[in-house]
Amino acid sequence: MTQTTLLSYEAPWPVHCLDWCKTPAPGQQHRARSAYRLALASFLENFHNQIAVIGLQDERVLVEDDYTDYPDFVTLCEAHHGYPATSLQWQPASATSFAWSQRSPAVELLASTGDALRIWEYSADGPPPSSSYVGRQSQNSGGHSLSMKIALSGPKQSKVQSSTTGAPLTNFSWNEKSPNLIVTSSIDTTCTVWNIDTSSAMTQLIAHDREVYDVAWLPGSTDIFVSVGADGSLRAFDLRSLEHSTILYETPAPKNPPPPSASPSTSARPPTSPLLRIAFNPSDSNYMSTFHMDGNEIQILDMRSPGQPVMELRGHHAAVNALGWGSGDHPLLASAADDCQVLLWDLADYTQGPASPRSAGSRLNSPRPDAKKKIVTEPYMAYTANGQVNNLAWSPVIQGLQMNTGHSTSPGEWLAIATGKSVKALKA
Description:
This protein is mostly beta strands. The chain is about 0% helix and about 40% strand.
């Protein structure tokens, strides 16, 4: 019997954000299906948006062909979010061992950004549902719950959802080493570092000349983060010396810039192509991936040789919407675009020189900083969706599963993608 390599879910609304859980649900460590939970956020142009947690209906959907009459995923719980979430993430795996001052060990944290940074508590400690009705799309009666804990916005924080007054937030990064730290990016040109354990802003800084679209902690660091924005620059910041930042990359100025506007309010700086996303390679944090607004290519940058990309990935035929690195020993980079394609890129052959030792003390896969830009046109794998792919999320490496029916699954990663109202989970 073959293992399932594709799982599906149909949401009642267009899916904008999604993330795969990093830790088992509290009290559910013994249940294998606990590793197959995703958080989803809707995109509706009104104040009636939702976030939801979905999970496997039954472990048997992973192996049994005759289980196709039932949905793979069911809705475990959902909550009102107001404006659409711009990003949604589960707590890092390190959160389970962190010494929180105001958190019950029976809850798992979710965070979202939009008009504020919101921290949610997910709980799955209720009794099993008494109903034997199979196929229901909601299991709220099963004890799953999702409730907002705090909303943080602007220089002040509020425990009341309606009193947030800060500028809209575009994205955030959750620190894996210190899971009490979250850095957010905003359209007001700032980045803010929050301590969610004390519900306070640690520092706020003007990061860019224009809107900031994404931010990411340097893996393993609680001081250094990078950001990208509408001014077309990638910048690095160190909380230990905030008086200056390092510009790691700036998009080239257009060859034929439009004539200057007569409006005195426009900046004298020539227009550049905004950078929308930034993500570190988890196995070698020298490397970052980014892409331009309306761009088909993905740029791979090396922190040791700033100024220009060391690689450019050319496989998409329409604007790229999302990218993300896997978390295995040999992480792949996934990208998704308006061309309905999801591409997986294996960059190990391009980043590791033949004489580069792979000793425990060295940075893995580190090229010479003076290497010229490589053009990569052949992805490792491709998947064609039935529509434009808006977002993606990797699972952690999920252990193999031994079922009481005698069936088993092999360990590995899954990649979840969002296309309209559909969510697909692909076995990588």
